[in-house]
C-alpha cells in the first residue's frame, strides 16, 4: 500500500488563509486595535502612509471568528482550483486588485464606514470559478446563473437591508472576478 502524504498544493491560498488567521488572532489579542491600525480601511488622512497600506491589507482583517470562517471556507474551497488553473501569480494579482479597488471605493464613497475582510476576494473567486470551462465565443450558463444569484443577492440586500455588510465590495469583487476569469481564459 502506498504511503499518503500531505502536500502544500496551493501556496498562495494556504498562505493567504494562514496570514488572515494570524491577523485575526492578533486582532483578538489587541482588542481590535491591530485591525484599526493596519487591517481595515476607512477615511483617514492622505498624509498618513498607513492609509495607502490599508487599501491592500484590509482584506486580511476580519471582525471575528464567524466572519473569518465564512470567508476562509470559500477561499479554501475555490482558491486551490483557481490557483491550479491560472497560476499563483494571477491569484495574487486578483487578490491585490480586488483589495485595492474595494479599498479605494470604500475610501471615496463611504467616509464613515470602515471596511475589513476578504469578502470581495471571495466574490471574485466565486465568479472566476464559473469561467473555468470557458471557451472563446461562448458565455458559460454557469457564469450567468452565478452572476445572477450572487450579484443579484448583493444588489437586493444593498438596497433593502441595512447591515454592516459591504454589498458594494462584494459586487466589485464579483466584477473583478468576471474580468479576470474572462481575460485569463481568453489566453
Structural features, described:
By secondary structure, this protein is mostly helical. It has one domain: Rhomboid-like fold, CATH 1.20.1540.10. Helices cover 70% and strands 0% of the residues. The chain is built from eight helices and no strands. The protein has helices at 11-29, 33-39, 49-57, 65-86, 88-109, 119-129, 141-160, 167-186. Helix 3 (49-57) packs across helix 5. The radius of gyration is 17 Å and the shape is globular. It starts with 10 loop residues before the first helix and ends with a helix. The model has no long low-confidence stretch (mean pLDDT 88).
**CATH fold node name:** Rhomboid-like fold
What's the level 1 CATH class? Mainly Alpha
The major β-sheet equals: none
Average the pLDDT over all residues and give the rounded result: 88
CATH architecture: Up-down Bundle
Q: So what's the overall shape?
A: globular
Instruction: Let me know the number of strands.
Output: 0
- What does the radius of gyration come to? 17 Å
Helical amount among residues, as a percent range? Answer: 55-70%
What is the count of DSSP helices, taking H or I runs of 4+ residues? 8
- How far from one another are the termini? 41 Å
Q: How many domains would you count in the coordinates?
A: 1
Structural category is: mainly alpha
Task: List unreliable stretches of 5+ residues.
Answer: none
- Full CATH superfamily name: Rhomboid-like
What is the N-to-C order of secondary-structure elements (H for helix, E for strand)? HHHHHHHH
Sheet-strand content, in percent, reads under 5%
What oligomerization state is this entry in? single chain
Amino acid at each position: 500500500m502506498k504511503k499518503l502524504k500531505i502536500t502544500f498544493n496551493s501556496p498562495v491560498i494556504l498562505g493567504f488563509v494562514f496570514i488572515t488567521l494570524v491577523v485575526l488572532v492578533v486582532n483578538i489579542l489587541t482588542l481590535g486595535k491591530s485591525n484599526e491600525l493596519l487591517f481595515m480601511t476607512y477615511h483617514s488622512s492622505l498624509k498618513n502612509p498607513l492609509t495607502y497600506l490599508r487599501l491592500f491589507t484590509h482584506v486580511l482583517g476580519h471582525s471575528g471568528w464567524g466572519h473569518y470562517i465564512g470567508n476562509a471556507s470559500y477561499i479554501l474551497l475555490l482558491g486551490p482550483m483557481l490557483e491550479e488553473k491560472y497560476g499563483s501569480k494571477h491569484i495574487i494579482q486578483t487578490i491585490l486588485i480586488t483589495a485595492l479597488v474595494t479599498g479605494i471605493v470604500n475610501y471615496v464613497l463611504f467616509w464613515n464606514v470602515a471596511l475589513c475582510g476578504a469578502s470581495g476576494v471571495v466574490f471574485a473567486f466565486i465568479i472566476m470559478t464559473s469561467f473555468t470551462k470557458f471557451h472563446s465565443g461562448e458565455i458559460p450558463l454557469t457564469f450567468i446563473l452565478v452572476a445572477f444569484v450572487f450579484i443579484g443577492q448583493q444588489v437586493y440586500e444593498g438596497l433593502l437591508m441595512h447591515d454592516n455588510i459591504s454589498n458594494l465590495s462584494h459586487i466589485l469583487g464579483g466584477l473583478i472576478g468576471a474580468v479576470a476569469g474572462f481575460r485569463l481564459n481568453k489566453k
